[in-house]
Write a structure and sequence with these properties.
Elements (H helix, E strand, L loop, with lengths): L32 E4 L6 H7 L4 E5 L2 H4 L3 H8 L4 E7 L2 E2 L12 H7 L22 E2 L14 H13 L7 E7 L22 H23 L4 E6 L9 E4 L9 H15 L5 E7 L8 H11 L5 E5 L26 E4 L10 E6 L2 E6 L5 E11 L12 E7 L3 E7 L1 E2 L4 E4 L2 E6 L5 E8 L9 E5 L8 E6 L2 E5 L5 E5 L9 E6 L8 E6 L6 E5 L10 E2 L9 E6 L8 E6 L6 E5 L5 E6 L9 E6 L8 E6 L6 E5 L10 E2 L10 E5 L8 E9 L1
Parallel strand pairs: 1-2, 2-3, 3-6, 6-7, 7-8, 8-9, 9-10, 17-20
Antiparallel strand pairs: 4-5, 11-12, 12-13, 13-16, 14-15, 14-16, 18-21, 19-20, 19-38, 21-22, 22-23, 23-24, 25-26, 26-27, 27-28, 29-30, 30-31, 31-32, 33-34, 34-35, 35-36, 37-38
């Protein structure tokens, strides 16, 4: 409901971050939100909060914690930041502010005495301990041309939204009625007579409608208005927070789900509904409660929040389920037990996504669910639930939910052969999930894919290579470019992506993975050549070369890393984009002639990219990690059984499973 203490706002000139633009919703699930109402936020907390899609912060943080906003925007450019402010009260404890530059002082100084909500005896009243309510109704007196509801809308526009920090406002306590306050002893028109409940509630709704309409008129259509409550005000609101889901006041799970779907259907676009569940223990270890709320949220298109509850929204609790890469939904949720239902009646519900399924059991009893095709449990905590096992049926406890991953999955980033069998590894060689086939059904099996967000708009472009021809499409599968990096070459290509000229858009680097005039070619995403091509090795390599790009020197500029293919010694060379060699080393025994494949990335998140290698055909599946000079950084490991000899490909990308880059190891065997 409300913050224990709203501290201060701040004049916009004190915060230097880029203006927030009209918010777009993330093209991925799960979607997560954090309702974080501490009066100050540290840089460390900001780095953690950047992992959430929507973050609600006290508006005072633009004054008390100005340094966090560049951190949040840098780490998550797509984050949606909402400024929290109560709609109908002034926070207790701040009546005595004396700092005249303090925005909350200014807010308090502008509150006319006639705007407080009073009882029939003229005494201020409220419902939250220590906080006096304000009269939102249009019966509050006009002072200086405004009432409380129009004054607050003006304040939000001029003192909060105008800073450019926020994507919108979160109004707390957007009630549809008020007659329950002070046991009904309230006087909205100051005639010293307690209002009839029906009259008080009607006046309250009219006044709250004015607040929302006035706010929308002032801040415009590209900013968000979300509220805690507010089912009657959707003509001007984008959505709401449903607190402590599923509340008995909403009619339990089925009633809360009906409310959830109603908001999604009626809020302004983009519609943002945050489903907040309270830990039953007040601790982050209520895993079943977390899963139940998350799985229920995934039955719709909302954002999930899990914390201690309304008394103290201040948790940074992260779960393995949050990082599950489900992709986009394939349709609406369906009840699969006891029978089909078009409304959210209690039972077992399922929703299918591109990369997995979500199940929720809203009944009191455990149910056994047969899955047919094998699905994979995610890996994590608690291990008896998130074991990474392949399952064909599960027993789902009452009031519980589960995310299961398909064995066939579409990676959203990285480079691999379409339909290849893939395993994902952390920096230490730990598998982050069981192996699977990554198959993009809209493209032929076996073509080389590179998925990368070249223009940094939050949507990866897809580069395919087949017969020496490169095709670039956007996430809507619209063609952006088609070209040949080499005029007559018709074989496989090595591909990598990175910003070669520091223009804010990433570029493509190509090599031949077969015989020919083996030069490293650099081009824009649209096929325009950049700089001069260069030879990585003095003589052509029979098996061609592979390529990667990254900052392996730590100087802020990219280097190009090339691995020699079959028929040459397993050499890795490091180049500046102008073709100057700055390092070379052998990744495996000099006598090995199967070739070496290369990847570059910051797997251990220390700020410097490392070079990761895998052998080509004939070599064991040994993964090694090096600096640019060839110094091995950590112990090697085997990605498959030691007897495997078919060769591997490697790339590094954040594929949305762990919130950090992973090593993608793929085989030549395709789906």
């Amino acid at each position: 409901m409300r913050l224990l203490g709203l501290v201060s706002l701040m004049m916009f000139c004190l915060v230097a971050v880029r203006p927030a633009t009209a918010a777009g919703l993330p093209h991925k699930y799960p979607r997560i939100a954090n309702y974080f109402l501490l009066p100050t936020v540290t840089a460390l907390q900001a780095r953690e909060l950047a992992r959430w899609d929507v973050v609600i912060l006290g508006a005072e943080n633009q004054y008390t914690s100005a340094a966090i906003f560049p951190i949040l925007r840098e780490l998550n450019p797509d984050i949606i930041l909402l400024a929290y402010i109560p709609s109908e009260e002034f926070p207790g404890g701040y009546e005595s502010l004396s700092d005249q530059n303090h925005p909350l002082y200014k807010l308090r100084q502008g509150i006319a005495d006639g705007w407080w909500l009073r009882d029939a005896a003229g005494v201020k009243t409220g419902f939250w301990p220590g906080a006096d309510m304000l009269n939102v109704t249009n019966d509050a007196p006009v002072v200086g041309g405004v009432r409380w509801n129009t004054y607050l809308a003006k304040f939000v526009d001029e003192q909060i939204i105008s800073t450019g920090i926020w994507d919108g406002v979160f109004y707390d306590n957007v009630f549809n009625d008020v007659s329950w306050v002070n046991n009904g002893n309230i006087d909205t028109n100051n005639d010293h007579v307690a209002d009839l409940a029906s009259i008080a509630d009607a006046r309250w709704r009219d006044g709250m409608t004015t607040l929302m309409a006035e706010t929308r008129a002032r801040i415009g259509s590209d900013k968000l208005i979300i509220g805690n409550g507010g089912g009657l005000y959707y003509p001007d609101m984008n959505g709401r927070l449903i607190e402590e889901f599923p509340s008995a006041l909403d009619g339990g799970w089925s009633g809360a789900m009906a409310k959830y779907q109603d908001v999604l259907s009626r809020g302004l676009s983009p519609s943002i509904v945050i489903v907040n569940r309270k830990s039953s223990t007040g601790l982050p270890t209520d895993y079943q409660g977390m899963r139940y709320g998350l799985a229920s949220t995934l039955m719709g298109d909302g954002f999930y929040s899990f914390d201690e509850g309304s008394v103290r929204h201040a948790a940074i609790w992260s779960y393995d389920e949050y990082a599950a890469s489900l992709g986009m939904p394939l349709g609406a949720a369906k009840r699969i037990w006891p029978s089909k239902s078009s409304t959210f009646a209690d039972g077992v519900w399922r929703r299918d996504f591109e990369n997995g399924i979500v199940l929720v059991n809203s009944t009191n009893d455990a149910q056994t669910i047969k899955l047919g095709d094998g699905y994979e449990e995610i890996r994590g905590t608690p291990s008896h639930v998130n074991s990474g096992r392949i399952v064909t049926s599960i027993s789902l406890a009452g009031h519980d939910g589960r995310i299961l991953l398909k064995r066939q999955m579409v990676l959203d980033a990285g480079s691999y052969q379409n339909g290849a069998f893939v395993r994902l590894f952390s920096s230490t060689g730990t598998t982050t999930r069981s192996g699977f086939f990554s198959y993009e059904s809209t493209r032929p099996a076996g073509v080389q894919l590179l998925k990368h967000d070249f223009d940094r708009d939050g949507h990866p472009e897809i580069v395919t290579s087949q017969g020496g021809v490169v095709t670039v499409t956007n996430y809507r599968d619209q063609r952006l470019a088609r070209f040949r990096p080499y005029r007559t070459y018709v074989g496989a290509l090595g591909m990598a992506a990175g910003d070669l000229n520091d223009d804010g858009q990433d570029d493509l680097i190509f090599t031949m993975r077969g015989p020919g005039n083996q030069r490293v070619v650099m081009m824009t995403m649209t096929g325009r050549r950049l700089g001069r091509s260069f030879r990585a090795f003095k003589q052509d390599v029979p098996g061609g070369t592979t390529v990667a790009i990254g900052d392996v020197t730590g100087d802020g500029s990219p280097e190009i890393i090339v691995g020699a293919g079959r028929g040459a010694d397993p050499r890795v060379s490091v180049f500046e984009p102008n073709g100057r060699r700055i390092g070379t080393f052998l990744a495996y025994n000099q006598k090995f002639r199967g070739g070496v494949r290369v990847a570059v990335g910051d797997l251990d998140q220390n700020g410097r990219d490392e070079i990761v290698t895998a052998p080509g055909p004939g070599g064991g599946p040994q993964i090694r990690t090096f600096t640019r000079t060839g110094r091995e950084l950590r112990r090697s490991y085997f990605a498959f059984e030691r007897t495997y000899r078919a060769g591997l490909d490697v790339s590094i990308a954040d594929v949305g499973l762990t919130g950090r880059p992973v090593l993608i190891v793929s085989t030549p065997y395709v789906y």
